[in-house]
Design brief:
CATH topology of the largest domain: Rossmann fold
CATH class of the largest domain: Alpha Beta
CATH superfamily of the largest domain: Vaccinia Virus protein VP39
Order of helices and strands: HHHHHHHEHEHEHEHEEEHEE
Strand content: 15-25%
Structural class: alpha/beta
Number of strands: 9
Bound molecules: S-adenosylmethionine
Shape: globular
Number of domains: 2
Distance between the termini: 63 Å
Number of helices: 12
Radius of gyration: 19 Å
Largest sheet: 7 strands, mixed
Helix content: 25-40%
Length: 276
């Protein structure tokens, strides 16, 4: 009742102000719930804005992104371990030693930087540059401070993924990785971001998104909304090809979940880089 009355009675700007204020009140344990509920009407009407706001203020689903819960091999989500195993195998099969022949990686939607740290310590340990960008300013700050204490070379930048060109200039990266992020953007925006990420990828574009549980994402003619949280199930295959890249590896597991995550992975390369 109260939440509906607040939504109906207060303009969005004011509700956002209250949610942002709540975000800084750690003593209010229901702040995550309240923030999402105050803005629930945006979820349907303006999904990009809704998701961006919650992530930016480290609210709602962002609350499990904390140092203690994310860093260390034992905390690596099994679906990400699976992706890294796939990446390792793919690189080796294509004559690239991941430990000595990859120089740089950009992780878009990197949160605290725990995936970059894992890659730095394990799979891509010979690389010289590990960069990450995320809209969640709290996560970037916490991650940066933790990584500094670990003498890590991972560099983290706060910003929306659309700001990659502004934050990283004309830099290109051997690997650009974007996992579990484009689902918070509608089809048109996600496709635009895919083209921008492809533009920054020197060798391998590595993606993970929501799998369509009913049929392979590559056969989808348009993106669909996931019922439980209104995030987007996309056809990355067509977006990647639209961006002039070639899909070289894919894994789609339909409705099978790995510790709660659906599996839709792609590894793509610039159109000219072919086996033959
Ligand atoms: C589900 S988490 C995935 C984190 C990590 N990539 C992984 O695979 O474990 C989504 C991440 O994307 C970030 N994110 C969401 N929308 C974003 C945007 N518009 N620009 C940059 N980062 C964004 C969130 O802050 C969050 O850290």
């Amino acid at each position: 009742m109260l939440k509906r009355a607040l939504r109906a009675g207060l303009p969005v700007g004011l509700r956002k102000g209250i949610a942002a204020w709540l975000a800084r009140r750690e003593s209010v344990s229901s702040r995550h719930w309240w923030a999402a509920e105050l803005l629930r009407d945006l979820e349907e009407a303006s999904p990009n804005e809704f998701h961006r706001f919650l992530w930016k203020h480290h609210l709602a689903y962002a609350q499990t992104y904390e140092i203690d819960l994310r860093f260390g091999p034992e905390q690596l989500h099994p679906s990400r371990q699976m992706l890294f195993d796939d990446l390792e195998k793919f690189l080796q099969e294509n004559g690239v030693d991941p430990r000595t022949q990859v120089e740089s990686i950009l992780d878009v939607g990197c949160s605290l930087g725990y995936l970059l740290r894992h890659l730095e310590q394990d799979l891509l340990c010979g690389a010289e540059r590990f960069a990450g960008i995320d809209i969640d300013e709290y996560a970037i700050e916490k991650g940066r401070s933790y990584l500094g204490e670990q003498n890590s070379q991972v560099e983290l930048v706060a910003g929306d993924l659309s700001e990659v060109p502004e934050k990283f200039g004309r830099a290109e990266f051997d690997i650009v990785m974007c996992t579990g992020v484009l689902m918070y953007l509608d089809q048109e925006t996600a496709a635009k971001m895919m083209a921008m990420l492809a533009d920054r990828t020197r060798r391998f574009l590595v993606l993970s998104g929501l799998a369509n549980p009913e049929f392979d994402n590559r056969d989808m003619s348009a993106s669909q909304r996931r019922v439980e949280d209104q995030s987007f199930v996309h056809n990355f295959d067509s977006m990647v090809e639209e961006a002039g890249f070639e899909v070289r590896f894919r894994r789609w597991s339909g409705d099978e979940l790995v510790s709660g995550n659906s599996i839709y992975f792609l590894i793509a390369t610039p159109g000219t880089e072919r086996d033959d």
